[in-house]
Amino acid sequence: MNEEVSRYVPVHRVRFVTASALFDGHDASITIMRRILQASGAEVIHLGHNRSVGEIVKAAIQEDVQGIAVSSYQGGHVAFFKYMVDQLRERGAGHIRIFGGGGGVILPSEAEELHRYGVSRIFSPEDGRRLGLQGMINCMLEACDYSTVAGFGDKPELLAAGNDRMTAGFMTMAEKRVEAADAEEAGRLAKVFEEIGKLAGAAPVLGITGTGGAGKSSLTDEFVHRFLQHCPDKRIAVLSVDPTKQKTGGALLGDRIRMNAVYADRVYMRSFATRGSRNELSAAIKDAIVTAKAAGFDLIVVETSGIGQADNQIAAVADVPVYVMTSEYGAPSQLEKIEMIDYGDLIVINKFDRRGSEDAMREVKKQVQRSRQQFDRNWQDMPVYGTNASQFNDSGMNRLFAAIMRKLNERNSAGGWPSLPVHDADPAQTAKRAIIPDGRSGYLSEIAQTVRQYKRLAKEQAEAARMCYRIEGALEAAKAAGDEPAIASLERLRDAHAGKLNETSQKVLAGWPAMVEAYQAAEFTTTIRGKRITTELFSTTLSGLSIPRVALPAYEDWGERIRWSYHENRPGEFPYTAGVFPFKRKEEDPKRQFAGEGTPERTNRRFHYLSKGEKAKRLSTAFDSVTLYGEDPAYRPDIYGKIGESGVSVCTIEDMRKLYAGFDLCHPATSVSMTINGPAPIILAMFLNTAIEQELEAAAAKLGRPLTAEEAFEVKEHTLRTVRGTVQADILKEDQGQNTCLFSMPFALRMMGDIQQYFIEHEVRNYYSVSISGYHIAEAGANPITQLAFTLANGFTYVEYYLSRGMPINAVAPNLSFFFSNGLDAEYSVIGRVARRIWAVVMRDKYGADERSQKLKYHIQTSGRSLHAQEVDFNDIRTTLQALMAILDNCNSLHTNSYDEAVTTPSEEAVRRAMAIQLIINNELGLMRCENVLQGSYLIEQLTDLVEEAVLLEFERLHVRGGVLGAMESQYQRGKIQDESMLYEMKKHSGELPIIGVNTFLNPQQKELAAELTVARATVEEKEQQIAGLLRFQERHMDAAPEALRRLKEAAVGGGNLFEELMETVKAASLGQITHALYEVGGQYRRNI
Length: 1089
Hints:
Number of helices: 39
Pfam families: B12-binding, MeaB, MM_CoA_mutase
Largest sheet: 7 strands, parallel
EC number: 5.4.99.13, 3.6.5.-
CATH architecture of the largest domain: Alpha-Beta Barrel
Radius of gyration: 32 Å
Strand order of the largest sheet: 9-7-10-6-11-12-13
CATH class of the largest domain: Alpha Beta
Oligomer: single chain
Strand content: 5-15%
GO molecular function: cobalamin binding; GTP binding; GTPase activity; isobutyryl-CoA mutase activity; magnesium ion binding; pivalyl-CoA mutase activity
Shape: globular
Distance between the termini: 30 Å
Helix content: 40-55%
Cofactor: Mg(2+); adenosylcob(III)alamin
Protein name: Fused isobutyryl-CoA mutase
């Protein structure tokens, strides 16, 4: 589509901060942009998703960048970008250029408004089509091709004020001194740093170095966290170095993304690229250290880029050098080659929960003893520490921090560093229990083997049956001819092959005629959960033909009958390839009524509108981004602008009551789905309490008196046993693609496990404790095979975790549901079939699960990524095709996106059209009279096998990386998703992947956005209403909330069931209050590149 665009080559060293906006996890586009920026020669400080204006502005000033690039897809963008402009100007950094994008979410009129306010450029989908990716990057580079220190002034005394802008400017000058173009410039800068040196204090330097991937950044962040806690009157500077790409000159300065503690007022952080130094430090690092000392920092931390065995540059600049490694260093003899074992004051074996770490501790300690010739000391006393820096409040990190403080006091006669108690406990004994036990780490490989073994069995049984069929035919001919010798021989041969048939195969062959006959009758009776249900098997068309509800194959060959029964079978029969139920429920379409906008009252009205006239109330709830990230509404502009945008604002249990008012939450035809993950345990506790309160009020009204304690208890338990619905709560996929993780991964998984344990204890059988989601993995850019493989792998990981906690498989599996996207790729036509077959086989043959547990149930949402702001009316065509594939594949529920969702929260008119898509398919499309249309298609069967094998291969790739959690640690899933997203975007922009109305079949008269399109935004009144409601709730519970939060934290620390306690906490505390209390005891999520 676009001609190849040559990249702009900047004159100056251009630096960018890139991020996604606050409460926004959509980082696929900003990831693509930062990669192209790097490839174009820029140094990029990537902050990742969910970044506030304060964090972005602080990083931009401290890093002395020329540009900021932010993606914003969750609404509130006008307030967000204006606030950023204001903050930069207030802090004397108005020169920094701001760039943004948000697809069709940012309207052209809003983009123009932001341009007038001071934002350099908001890129639109039309810009992407016209300029291409490289063209947009060129615009950004050209606008930022200037010096940030031109006319900066040579007044080092300004550093004493502790101003970040001044500190950053002089550090940039340190880099310019290294690359000075002429002697005069070099001389001038030398004098500047000579003066700075006179102002420098005696702050010590802590050096942190180690191999790439050892976890230096996480360890540094944990150190800073403890520094702030134990040194309340001291300031710290972190100078971090990452390598420059020699070919392009660009660099990914990725340490800051891992840092949660560096945004405190007493912390300064600056990222350096190695540029021409050819080692793990920037050539400017010594001047940068002097600058930090002159700026009055009490401690300077220098973190190097990853090093090799022979590197030891940190020892030349650090007073206390620390070497960080892992247990994966090879043979013990390799330790003798590591220079830093000789030079490091302290040696750290990070990621100590990995296999082999205890052996590594012994070998490293002995090598340190040999290296230092300290044979008079016990080797066990060598300064080697085992840590798990990625874990919250890790005991090994506590010991390391105390050791560093002791070293700083030893090196400084004045002392002044805190003396902390010595913890002598072996970190191997105090390490947190693995989420997946070591003995179960090969579960994905075992699962792949289980499926392949089943397929081999199916093939063997089919071959044996086919031979029996052929022999039986020959036997009939021999009998007709009266050939007794041949008859005897053939009977022996038949019996030999028949002996290979197992009991299942024998039943299939024996029962085949009866099965066919049963489906040719007028009616079919099935028993589901003890209920006998009679179904009509034929319907008559207007032409007078009878269409079967289930069509069976007309196979005569016994081998084909066996093959079909093992691979396909009829709906409702193992392995459930065609569906988990014998027939669809005619009284209830699979459609869900999806809503979420503004206040709970407004969304409640939308729910009543959508479900009017429907017997089944299948309510699917979208929450605003403030709620999704566990925060309360507030007046701060970057929060205020997002209240009630793209979802409903819910921050208290009172909001939850308003949201579902007028719906009987325990009615058998009512089902409530909540799309929320990070704070899901809190929101779920609010919902279940709301359902319980409804039933308590109804029971009291019926009796005409207050309930006794025993009666109230029984009503509560009955409610929990009855309520239907789903909460998404899938934290694994959040780390891999969706990005609404709030808490550290072990803590988040513990809360998921506590929910499931609570469900088991209270017999919650009709509500799904998790919706294991591939939809958001697909939305982040994954192709259909990756979506399916990662989602199923996540599901099996939850199973293994719950089993490790002692939960029975048949108590766990019924509470698990799945959620997939349906795009237009061919593979989407079979993802349900493949998922059901793999799950059923593994549940039965590996885990010994019962029939109910074998049945995988899943929800489909049509692809949001396939909705485009250009030619928005075409979106309904795409959605119709996607919905058709989902219904043909017998999904259990379906949400069809509205055509205008590429731009805004759907209008009522757009939602009505989206619902009509399903209604027309189900009620007007004659083919849908049959419920197993896909069965019998050669292509569908081949695709099913191909996709299934591709999924198993992905399981094996995950296995060799340590399973799902091990792969997450190395960012395998995230990297694969980003690569696939990049492939899609490149093909879309080049036109190689045709998208009608976007890159081909263009309408020259089409405006970028239809002028008449209704755009939904939360009103100022609604935002004010939510804040006011929150403040009233908090005021009413100001006495009860502290005690409720204290009990919650006690449960977290003491190992109690957190969800059981949350059921009480939500009655007195708001969402934000609870989230921040849990941060204190569970740790905050640490982002990754």
